[in-house]
Write a structure and sequence with these properties.
The complex is a heterodimer. Chain A is an all-alpha fold. Chain A contains twelve helices and no strands. In chain A, helix 9 packs across helix 10 and helix 10 runs parallel beside helix 11. The termini of chain A are close together. By secondary structure, chain B is of the alpha+beta class. In chain B, helix 18 runs antiparallel to helix 19. In chain B, the strands form seven sheets. A six-stranded mixed sheet of chain B has the order 15-19-14-18-16-17, with helices on both faces. In chain B, strands 2-11-10-9 form a four-stranded mixed sheet, with no helix packed on it. A four-stranded antiparallel sheet of chain B has the order 5-6-8-7, covered by helices on one side. In chain B, about 50% of the residues are buried. The N terminus of chain B is likely disordered. In chain B, a hairpin with a 3-residue loop joins strand 9 and strand 10. Chain B is globular and about 70 Å long. In chain B, about 30% of the residues lie in helices and about 15% in strands. Classes of the chains: A mainly alpha, B alpha+beta. At the A-B interface, helix 2, helix 3, helix 7 and helix 11 of A face helix 9, helix 10 and helix 16 of B.
Amino acid sequence: MQRYIIRRVLLNIPVLLLVIVGTFALIRVARGDVITAMLQEAEGAGGATAMQREAIQQLRRELGIGDPVHIQFVKWAAGLVRGDFGRSLWTGEPTWDRFWRAAKITFELSFIALVLNILIGVPIGVLSALKQDTLADYIGRLIAIAGISIPDFWLGIMALTFPAIWWGYQAPIGYREIWVDPWGNLQQFVIPAAILGFRGAADDMRLSRSQMLEVLRQDYIRTARAKGLSERTVIFRHALRNAIIPVVTLWGGNLARILAGTVVIEQIFTLPGVGSLTLNAISLRDYTQIQTNVMILAVFVVFGNLLTDITYAFIDPRIRYN
Amino acid sequence: MARRKQTYLEEAYEYWREVWRRQMAVATRRSLFLRGSTLAALGGASALNSLLAACASGAETVQREVQREAERGTYQYSRYPLVEKYNWRLLPWGGTPYYGGHALEPNNDPPSNWDFFNSLMHSHTGRSHQRLMRNKYGPGAHMERLDTDKDFEGDLALEARPARDFSYWDFPIRPGTRFHDIPPVNGRELTADDVKYSFDRYLTSLHRGELVAYLDRVEVLDRYTARFHMKRPIFWWPNIVANPAFAIVAPEHAEGDRDHWRNQPIGTGPYVVTYSRFRDKQERVRHPHYNRPDERWPGVQLPFLDRGTGIYFADATARKTAFRTGQADYIRTNDKAQMDDVIATNPQTRWLVRPVSPDDREAFMFQWRGTTPFHDVRVRRAMSLALDRQRIIDTLKLGAAVWAHPIAYYNLGYEEPLHGKELGPWVEYNPTLARQLLREAGYEQGLEVELMVSGSVSDLHQVMQNMFADVGIRLVFDERESTEFTERRTQGNFKGLVRIPVVAAMAGPIWALNYYAKDSPHNVGGYSDPQMEAMIERALYTLDADEQVRILRQINDFAMDQVLTLEVFATHYIVGFAPWMHNAADHAQMSFNFWGSWQWAIIWLDDTAPGGRGGRPLQL
């Protein structure tokens, strides 16, 4: 087992190196750099700056993007070794600080979304299976189809617009920390989290319904009923516990989808999370911030996969190497 | 031609004469008004402002009357219907002020950093910093003009005192002005040394270099007086130092810890910034020692508001929703459909519509480098004649736009943008003549023109394509990602046409300098003409304000006659104010004088603001 884990860890190192080099190179392939983005931003703010060519070169040097690309890479990699992720080209703040400030928001949003995903998806799916071909089933299936079909951004815009028109309501704007203003924080996060979780909930609904229907037709369920067990015991102790296993495997995928969905939802609901930070960094050509965000997220993904591999290995010894 | 602009005093006098007559409900003899105008002229703006303050208690009655007249169509303010209906005079100026309160701004997200010398700060500095001069604003001030010699007043400075030959300018500083009480400055008094330091740094700044190019050096005459020696005299220097980009900062802050300098602004302005994160929000609180009193509210320690929050909205829907639900105190748009949408749910919103000057207009630069068809004026004129501007405005902008021209109308001495034939013979839609000009230029079979666009093709581009097609011009699109677009445009790397870079200028000659001077970085098409250079030179350095207006008109006429840029339209600027917000309006230079402004010192929220955000009535 120990050798297996070491091997898996070693295999992930080239992956991470590839991500580092790839991120560094790809963002520089795109035309325009941070100076161009600054000019663009200035124009959006009501006035382009009259920067002469030599002034632009000077600013490039100051920001450290005037060097040849390989020198920039070596400098950045050397910083990484020392635990220095660099500073944002726009704000001058350490990119690590900015990432973690935003990560708190994204993690909270994702966590609530995942919880809502489970709380909405599984019960409706189970209910749908138990009430097959009734009105409740049709409604449940309709909700599931809607969840799969409706894009997050459209739902987000509707969820913002109509409460404002009908009831004059909008969640408080400007991020409220959970420890400072728990009620404000909850109002801010519930709607976007529900929207994010809705898509995953739809998948959960469909899968849990089909699994439940399949399990309910198994012989051991008939046996349980024949033994005279109550319907509740049959459903919750025998049917659901078996039906839920494939659904649980879906949650990992849902979390990845939720994280990806935060990019749009954070923008719509004005939440300054990692999604917003990364999107802004890309549009503003904030190289160091992009590199930090992508690298940390890549580490998370790689680490998550590693954990999954190890867990599988524990659960099923057949997949261990050697 | 458009009406010749009246002077500030003439204009204000005429307006308040009407107000006065209605207020007093008496027939007043003409001679009394003449005496009043003389008094006002002698007393200047302060006398008019006092008059306004005296009338303030009945301002609402007058407003209703003016509103009724506007609705009847008898009160002619503007020839543009929307501007006529929602002009700044109908806003609730003055009245009983409210003290305290917390404003929420949807368009005041903080800058990426506060490094004044390496970033463009003009739209961020007004609330926390002061400059030497500032624009007049608010009750008693004219909001549509920007006369270089009339519409400025001291901010940090008590006045601007030029030498007889304009070779230098003296700025006596208001004594007792204190910085915010934040280390390392710790609330110390601002002196002329700070002014000198700031401008010494601005002289080598990467941004706005073209504006301080006229300055040679700054000399400190005494603790409270700074003298600006000019390289070459200009009479409109106060206009430049009124630009919020030239805020005065403390050297120990700028030269101290770099992170602190970039992240914590320390100024002398009405508000102290307590939180500022890029693309997030800004929090600010009252500066208790703000040292710029306002004669309109004598004895009041400004600002009126206790706090302000500026929030970044990435999404326009969220911004609109915030305004609808009372979580933002105003909303800005240039889209009439958005305005109608908000009116449907918030009919009590007070609107202001202004014809925007050239700073945000749809116009296109030609590529002049190499062998291009644009060297032939007949081709440029044909392209201009092929565009049915009014139909474009009515269709795409629901009428909320004006015909564009390169120099701002207020710098040309007009009250409103020029329109139709006022812009010369080459702007009114005439496809027959356009075809004829193309034939004469040798393009019987038509020609192909490439337009580089940012992102994707817009409705305007498609309409232009159709209109050009009618006269035989095939418009093809070169779509580029927005940052790439900016880079290519900056380098002049495009084939045919490109949208002009947006430029914010406060002084008339700067428009021309930016777009038509050979060495200007904004002249991305590489236009060059000695005749134009000579006119710009004269506009820059004449010492006569009226002469400058005349030259600017020549430049504008020349540019329109030669179709140096393909001018299409300039969208109306629309802002809606929540009914509890007072003393807020837009100014001719929106980027300098509303959302990046000192005017937040005199804005207040009354006690109907939701969430207890309003102030309490202040008995003067």
